[in-house]
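Hi team,

Below is the intake form for Cytochrome c biogenesis protein from Actinomadura viridis. Please confirm the fields before the structure is written into the shared record.

FORM ID: S-0412
PROTEIN: Cytochrome c biogenesis protein
ORGANISM: Actinomadura viridis
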Amino acid sequence: MAKTPDTDVQTGLPDETGNGAETPAAAADGAATGAPAERRPPREVPRPKGLGPVGWARWGWRQLTTMRTALILLFLVALGAVPGSILPQRGQAPEKVAEYFEKHATLAPWLDRLSMFDVFAAPWFAAIYILLFVSLAGCVIPRALQHYRGMRARPPAAPRNLLRLPQSASYETGAAPDEVLAEARKVLRKRRFRVDAGEASIASEKGYLGETGNLVFHLALLGLLLALGVGNVFGYRGNVVLTEGKPFANSLSYYDQFMPGREFDSDRLPPFSMTLDDFNATYETQGERRGQATDFQAKLRYRDTPTSQEKPYNLRVNHPLDVGGAKVYLLGHGYAPVFTVRDAKGNVAFRDSVPFLPMEQRNYTSEGVIKAPDAEPEQLAFYGILWPTAMASEDQKQIVSAFPAPIRPVVTISSFKGDIGLDSGTPQSVYKLDGIGKTLQPVKGGQKLLEPGETLSLPEGAGSITFDGLREWTSLSVNHDPGRMPALIAAVLAIAGIVASFMVRRRRVWVRARAGEGGRTVVEVGGLTLGHPTQEFEEIVAALRGPEERGTGERPARQSEADPDPASATDTKE
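The structure came back. Fields below:
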C-alpha cells in the first residue's frame, strides 16, 4: 500500500517535503522546545510595520489635496468671515469697537482674545486661508497637467458596435468607403472636432473647453487667494478722522490707526495730501423712514505730491478717491463742536473742534471730552453730550434729539479740574476722561446747557468754556492694495470659467464605413455626449449623407436615454 504524505497538524495540508520529514525550521523549533510536533505552538507571523513619518506625510498630503478637504476649508473661510461682518472691526471702525467695549464690558474682552474684532488678520483665519491655498494648489495643478496631456492625446478609437451608443445612425451610400471617410473628416474638422483616422473609421472629439473652464475657475480661485495674500503682505491700510477745514498728509503722525503689511516700508508712503472743505449728509424728512440717511458727500481738495496742482473731488460712498496708488474710502461721519476754553487767568487754553462719537445712530446723539492741559493754575477738562436737534422728551424731564441733522444743536457740559494725567506720558484716549474722582475732581456748579455762542463760566473764576459752533467730521479709510487688479482679473476669469464649464460639454463622434452588398457602402455613425444628447449629432449625420442620399435606405438616428451603460459600448475609457 502506498504511503500517504504526512500532513501538518495545524493546517491539515501535506508537508512541504512530501515525505514526512520535518523542515529545518520545524526541526529547529522542536529542538528549541523539546516538544513533539503535535504540541508545538504555531509559528508567530511578524507584525506589519507602521507607516512611518514618510508614510504619514504622504497620507496627510493626499487628504489635504482632495476636493472634499478644499470644500470644507472653503466653508470654514466663509464661516470665519461671519464675525467680521457682524462685529465691528478695528481696521474699518475703531471707534465702534471702543463703543462695543463700553456696552459689553464682560463679553468684549473674551471676543478680543479670539481676534473677533480683527478677524481677517487673526492667526486662526490665516491658518485656514493658507491651508485652503495649499489644498487648491495640490488639487488643481495636477488636474491641469493631466487635462493638458488629454487635450494633446489622440481621440479614442471607434468602439466595436457604434449602434449601441446613446446616439447612433446607419445608412447606405453609393460613394466608396475612402470617399465617405474623407468627407467625414472634412465635416468634422469644419465643426472644430479633433479628428484622427483609424482602420476604416474616423474618431473625433471636442468639448474640452468645458473641462478647461472648470480648471480655469479653480485656478482663478487660487489666483484670487494669492492676490489677496499679496495685498495683505505688501499693502497698507489706515484710518483717519478728518474734520471740516482740517488738512491731512499721508504720514504716520496723521493716522488714527495704521496697519502696514509685513513687507511694507512705512518710510515709502506716497506724499499726497488732502483737505476736507465741507461734508453734507442728506436725510429723509417724512414718512416711516424719517431720519434715515440717503446720501453722504465729502468735498475734498487733494494733491498727489507737495508740488502738484491742487484738485477738487466729491467723495461719496462707493466712489473712492484714487491718489498716490491708494484708494480713499468714505466710512462714517459725526459732529465736531467747536469750543474755546479760558483758564483762571483769562488766557485761551484751548480753541479747536472736538470730534464727538455717536451714542446712537438714529438721531446722532453724541458724546465727547474737551481737555485743556495748558490751563493755569489747574488743568481743566469737560464732558459734553450733543443733541443735533434738541427737544424735550414726552415726559418733559430730559432732552432728546429728534432728528440727525443739526437743526438746533445743544451741548450739555460737565466740568472737571485737577490733573488730567497727560504729563505722566501714559497714553490716553481722546474720547475718554481718566482719573475722575481721583486726580480729576468735578466742579460744583460747573454744568450747563449751551447753544452756539453761549459761555459757561466756572465758579470762583476757575475759567470758562464757550460753544462756538458746530462742524462735521468724516472717517476715511486709506487702502493701498497691490493685489487689487490681479484679484479683479482672477474674479473675471473665475466667472468666465464657471460659465464655460456649464455651457460646454464633451462630445465624441465616430464614423465607420465598410463595403456592403450590391457595391454600396454601409456607413455607421455613433455619438457620445457627456450629459444629455445634443442636436449637433443629427446635423453631422445630415451633413455626411448629403442631400442626394436623404430618404434612401437609412437607419434613422437614435437617442437612447435608457441605455443602462453607454460607456460599455466603447473600447476606451471616457
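SUMMARY LINE: The longest helix spans residues 123-152.

Thanks, M.
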